[in-house]
Every structure is written in C-alpha cells, then in structure tokens.
C-alpha cells in the first residue's frame, strides 16, 4: 500500500474541508461535465455578463489597450484606430504609474486612481472621502477576505450575514475560522432587512458565547434582488452603533437598479446624514467593483473598498496584509479609474459610451421583468421582482413526492430539482440551499443575464421542465 | 472619551498583528515619505523591473492589447499598427475564453492556457504534465498562500524555510497560524542548501511538538541569488521523502541565470529522474510567474503552480479555495500563455522578441557582475556573486560603535545602516533582518535592476556613503 500523503484529505486544514462554495459547487461541476460531453449549457450560476454575450464598453477597452501597448501612441497612425480622448486618457493613467502596467503599484493601488475613487464617492454622496482609506483589490472578494480576516480572531467571533446570502461570506468566514450568525430576510416583505430579527440573533449568539463583531449586508441584494430604503439603512446603522458592530456594505450592484422608487443610496451617505454619534463612530467598509454594473468586466478583477471610522493603526494592519500579495493587478486598477470617471458630455467618446451603457441597463431592466413574470407564470413557483442586482430567486413549492425522491437519491430537494433542470434543459442554476433559505422552503437562483433574445426560450424551457416535473411528482395541473 | 473601536488594534486578529512584511516595511514607508517630499528615490527594495525603466516586450503587449480591444481586429487598418502574428495569437487566445477578457474563467484559469503550461513543462523537463494539476493565479504569492493555507492546520504545523528567506513565506505562515522552522543557508558555501542542517532543525522542532509538514526552497535564491545543483536538489528530495514533507519549489526566477556552470533544473525534473519511490511519492508544488524572468510583468499578476503526487481530493479542496475568488485575472492568464509559448524562429515577430529578451538577460548578467564587484570593493563589505534571480545580498561588517549608535536610536543595526543609506543617497534597500540572517551578521538586499547606465552612479553613491559611515564609526580606513 502506498504511504499516506502528507496532504491526505484527512490531514489538511479543517476550515478548508468544511467550507462550501455553492456558486462553483456540485451543479457547476456537473454542468461543466455535460458541456465537455457536448451538451449546450446556459450558465446562469454566476453573474458573468460577458460569458453570456454582453459586449464590453468600447471606450474603456480602448484606453486599457493603449495602456498595455503605449508604443502605439508613438505611431503617427494611432488615430486611425483610436479616438483622441482615449489616447489622452491612456497617457493620463500611465502618468499615474511608475513604469506602466508592468510595474507593481503600491499595495493599496495607484495613488492617482485612489484619488479618483475618492472624488467619485464625494460626488455620489456629498461627503468627503480620503484616498488613504481606499484600497484597490483584485476583485471585491479579495477586499472582503482582508476585512473578515482582520475582524475574526477565533471561532467565538461572529459575523451576521443575511440568509439567503452570497456564499463568498459563508465560505470566507469558515476559511478564516469564525462563526456565521444568520439573520433571515423576509421573502414576504420583499426580502427586506428586519432589525428585530438581527437583534434576536445577536442575543441567541451571545448565549452561545459568540461575540458578534461584524454585519454583512448586500444592497442591492444577492441573490434576492431587493433595494434597501434609506429608512431601512438608518435602522441598520443605529443597530450597529448600539451593538458595537462593524458594517460590511457589499454595494457592488449599485449601478444595477431596475425600479425608480428606491434609487441606490450608499451606507456611507446614510451614515454621514445621520450625524454624530453615528457618523463619527460606526466602523464601515464598503465594496465596489468593475465586475458588475453595466461594465460586467469580471475577468479584469478590478475593485475597491473604502474604510470609514477605522482606527488608523488598524488601517496600517490592513495595509500590511494587502502587502503580502504586493500589488493588485494594474490593468484592473485602470478599469476602476474609468468606472469612477467615465466619459462626460462633450467628450468625443461620450455619445457612444452613453449609448452602450444605456442599452445594457435598459435591457437588464426588461430582462428583470421578463424573468420575474416568467417564473410567476409557472406552476408552484413564486418570485419577488428583481429590483436590482443581477439575479432572480424564485421559490419552488416542491411536492412531497419530489422531496421523497430527492431523499432516495441522497440529494437536498432543491439540488435534486436543479440537477433535473440542468439535465433536461442545460440551464445551470444554483440551488437555494447554497445561499441559505428558511427551513422547508426551496429556491433556485438564476442570473438575469441570458441575452434578451434568448430569455423567452430559456423561460419556455424552464416552464416546460417545471410543468413536467410537477406533473411527475404531483400529478396533472389541477387548475387546468 | 470616544468608545473603543470594534476594530481597535488591540482587538484584531493576532496573526495579522504579528506578521512582518519587510519588503514593504519601515524602509519602504520612509522611502515613500522622502519621495513625497521631493527626494529622488531609487527603489531597489522590490524586484520590480519596469519601475526602474525596463521596457516591456513588444509582442506580448501587442497580443494582450488586441485581446482587450478585439473590435480592432474588425478594422481593415489593424495591420498598420499590429503584425499579423500578434493578430493571429490574439484570436487564438480569445478562442480559449467564453466572452473575452471580461468574463470570469474557471477558478483554476482557462483550460487552454493550462494546457499550454503543461506542454511547456513537458518540453522543459521531458516528463508529462497534467493541465488538471495546474492552477493559474494572480501572481505566485496567491498560489503560495493557497498551499500554505491547506498545509497548515494549527500552530503545531511547521514549514521549513531557508534563512535568509523571502518574507512572503514568513508572513503567510504567520497569517495562516503556523510555525516557521528555519534552516540556515551557508554564506561561506555560496548560500547552498545543507540537508544536515535541515535534519537537525526538524529534530529540534519535533522536540517542541512541531510537525514539520512542508519545506520551501527558492531556486534561484531570493535574496541570496544562488543556483542549486542537481546533486543538491536530489538530496533535498530524498530528505523530503524520508521525513514525509511536502516540497514547495519557488522557481519564479528560472529564466534569470547569470552563469553557465549550473543552468536551471526544475525540482519536477530531478524528482522524475530519481524514479520510484521518490517520483511517485514526494508531494511537490512548483511556482512560476510572468513577474520575473526577462518579462518583469509584475503589475499584470500572472502566475501558475503545478502539483505533483497530490491526493486527488486535496486537489479538489484547493480548487474549492481558489473558487472563493472566482477567477484569476484573465489578462494575466494571457501573459502566462505567452510566456510558456513565446514567438518561434520563423514567426514575423520572432527576431524582435529574441533581440529584446536577449538584451534584457545579457544586461542583467552584466549588472549582476557590476553590483557584486562594486560591493566587494567597499570597506567591510563582502558579497557572493548573484548567480541567478534579481538580487544582491552583501554582508556588511558593522563597527561596534555603529551597533551601539543603532541601539541608542532604537533600531536594529542593519535597519539603522539602511535608513542612513536611504537618507544619504535615496537608495531604498531592505535590511537583512527582514529576510533573516545568522545572529551577529548584517546584510542589505538590493535588486540588480537599476538600469545599466545608472549602476555605476548607484554603486559610487553606495561606496561613498559606506566609506563615510565606516569612517564615522570606525575611524579612517586603516589599510589606506
């Protein structure tokens, strides 16, 4: 017999073994296998717009291409292929670097880009922002990891997370050895946050010896799509003040809003509006990225976080952690710069940029409606409207016979349903259990990202599958 | 009094507080301050070639620029600015993606690039490599973090690291809560590895209840610049086999070789050459990057690691950890693809590519000699030749009066020396204590990356400073 490996699965870091990352979990792996076998797969498991056909915005790509190949700007013919404002912008960003895109930047990112981010936040919120408290990161997940890592000292430190939640949070809390303290969102109340629920979960956690030190919220919601009201955010901040909790604001979908009643409002702005003792005490980290919005530049890994009310020495400690990886990728930093300072009216590239971004956002808004309406037309399926973000999270009322069949197959009922959906249609979703859901309820998360032309067919395939599934486990539609 | 912060520096993760990252430590921070005040700083603290004027290779930048702006390839004028083989290569890499550079790839990286890496390893070593065991990462540090994270379960798990070592290792071992077990390199023996020393350190560690599970080595060495012989690598592998230790091979400088006696040989090749029971048992992870070599594309964050003899389930667990960050940056992956498959003789772009890369390597070789000779011409300074990598690591014999002055200033003697050097000359180095050194010896790490034209002046400034320093603390040069 071969000797046991040093890295035998029995002998590795337990936190890694325990963590679950559903977005790239069993469903994704099965979908990848089917794709290898030649089946056409519609990947709606991750918010990855370009993978489903969204075209990149032209101007930012022109600028970054020129930054990658600055020698083009020494060629007299460069203006045949590039507009003058893209050339000017590329030169501007290169002046932020010492050595172009190939040189490490400061571990927090290029000072010039951090200044541009601070200016953007100032314009957005009406309150000053300090570039020294802005960190650029390789995607927002990296920033979240840094914050959770510094916050969590051991398994008795807890972080409140919404249920359903994006599994980045549960996975990272597990990885760094802390405890997730759930607070349930109310599906009936449009997935709103309920501070009473949070308070009772904190009390419950304390009884178990857990110190709740952080609270994650996602606005607009993932996977739940709700947009939080200002009143709701005020309650949340008051709660964090009273309970001495750091607020982690996942605001990566701030450009993805599909209704007009509740425009995006940042936690920073609400906090500052509230004045002392909130505005000068509540510790806040807010995350934003180029992967979402109308940009969808997921593969570039560009993001930032802003710190508010943090102890200066703690900021230094975060700087030290960021330094281990030396530098976030520099092209991604340029994308962040472009996101916070897009072309303005009067710029050569403005009309095209405005047209492209409006077309994407308008289409996402239509798709949000098409998918919600589609799900609500299906037997045993109900779905809140996607007010923001990129996801639809319908509730599926699974018949008892289906639950029993799932049990026989050794699968969670929603995993069973999603696997059947995948095999029948090629639609790759994530089961609600990957995000958490109230005991006895079952959900499916899809993105709203299939192209607008494809959605009717995707929804038709879903409806047919669902009808067949329900007929198999519940009998023919009684209302027919 | 303001209430104590949740993230008060007293109340954060202890492992973060304890970790030290010298490359971006006190010296770097002081250098940044001086730069802000207008002083000209020569940053030799990090191996960051483009920051010191090295120009990027043209062909890879052309290819990546086209991948960023694929619409250029629909323009009939594209061939005015781009050669045909760059266009063909860009199309080829885009065919590896689903949605271009803006889409997340698989968490291990694009399958096409991983296949190209495996082919490169096969050509380099003469042994097959499996793309499923290759992970692309945002810089090699990210891969090292994954491996140390899965290896270390608690503070009783130890990892052997060379002293002097690159502080990524000490910092990451501290971050994930393990114990660094030092093995000292022998400066007198050209910084060679001594297996007897390792064995005694393992015994020592065991007495303290530490299980040594991993061994890091860096070849060519950082900061020490030595190139390991095949015989030395065989001893190392035999030792890891006998002691049941995973080998972490930092081989990021494999293209940076400045002597002909010991060309680079990979740990994978030596392992496979040794045959069973070594070749089928010793667990190995090997790291490589686009940040070093003649590429120096640090800011792009492109790298890979290859796993050998790992348990398949452990590979799955690593995949899960990589999935938390969803995807390494895709432009960086394209750079890895280009590094492992550069232009070949007969390609349009080959002559230029060959000329550019040869010029860089030839110059680095000359610079390695210039710096070593320069240091050895200084009073109280001795320096082993930089056989490979990008660093010079001279030993400074500090006079007793300087050590006493450092003590009065509350600084380690080598930090004191480096700060004085910085203030006097603007040369930003890293003190040997940041890498570890034998008790009572003092070193300075510089890169050999200042441009060839600048090096004589840099060495002249160093020599003058050093002479003044020694004269101040030891009196005038006695041999004069």
UniProtKB/TrEMBL annotation, chains A, B:
Keyword set includes Transferase: yes
GO BP of this protein: photorespiration
Keyword terms of this UniProt record: Aminotransferase, Pyridoxal phosphate, Transferase
Pathway where it operates: Photosynthesis; C4 acid pathway; Amino-acid degradation; L-alanine degradation via transaminase pathway; pyruvate from L-alanine: step 1/1
Pfam families: Aminotran_1_2
Molecular functions (GO terms): alanine-glyoxylate transaminase activity; glycine:2-oxoglutarate aminotransferase activity; L-alanine:2-oxoglutarate aminotransferase activity; pyridoxal phosphate binding
Cofactor section: pyridoxal 5'-phosphate
Quaternary structure and interacting proteins, as annotated: Homodimer.
Protein name as annotated: Aminotransferase class I/classII large domain-containing protein
Organism: Ceratopteris richardii (Triangle waterfern)
Highest classification ranks of the organism: Eukaryota, Viridiplantae, Streptophyta, Embryophyta, Tracheophyta
